[in-house]
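Now for today's protein:

——
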Amino acid sequence: MVIIFTSIQFICFAQHNGSYTIENVSHKISNDNEKKIDISYDLVSANTNNGFSVKIFISIHGNEKLLTAVTGNVGENIKAGKNKKITWSVFDEVGFEYGINDDEVFFRIEANDNILEKTKLFYLESTPKGVFAIGEVNNFYNPCVEYIKLQNDKYGFYGFAYKKDINTNNSVLSLDKYYTNPAPVCILFSMIMPGTGSIKATYGKKGWVLLVGFLGSAGLAISTKLYSDKQYNNYLAANDKNTINSSYNNANLYHKIALVSGSIACGIYIYDVMWVYKKVNNNLKNTKDFRNQLKIQPIEILKN
């Protein structure tokens, strides 16, 4: 089905303090890509030096969702001014094609002028063995660990920040960054040494059996091939019938063993590279919404 946009309605929202408003909201299908929507707005404020936190929401059949597949003048530290632009990549957001009628969808733009001053940034690494601090985290370790445990095996590096609102003096603990081992690195590890890519992609949870299996089969293939060549040379140099028969039979037997073990090693190599490619893509797919949300703004963990 071809995606259809007809007279999409916008509801604009500005915060309660009255010092700024969102005006002149308009939209159009992007000139660069028909699967994207360009949204324009004016953020009017007397203080043009303040940075604003800007979010855009979509409501379809009454169900509201924060849009994350957006770029442009959205997110943190957006300055006041005219002709601000947000580009929404529709298919990256919803994952399928559908039609939208004017009575089904509403957009809401929200701004917040709370200015947060970052006071501390620290990292934790989540692995199957547990959560480990990288550097000093002081009193923030426990709430951060509890948050990570709720993320359903999203292994990787979490960057947390402790911030203070310079307007209200309120403090906020938030997740600012998230990293996972990149696909090219994991695949490169597999190509260099099968098993290590799986270990890296799963943060040590899987891959050890493949690593041992590859080293064992590859080692057996090399050693038996060398021994087979040695026996074949003995066969060529032998003069008596017993030595000839014995050397020939040994060379033939160990050559077959080398072929079988080498085939096993090659199979492990191919399997590991393909499995790692699939795994890292699944990792990216499972964390897509999570990572997109962080592109828009940090995720609050605690606020007081």
Notes: The chain has seven helices and 16 strands. The chain has three domains: 4-112, 116-180+298-303, 184-286. Residues 4-112 form a domain with the Immunoglobulin-like fold (CATH 2.60.40). Residues 1-17 have pLDDT under 50 and may be disordered.
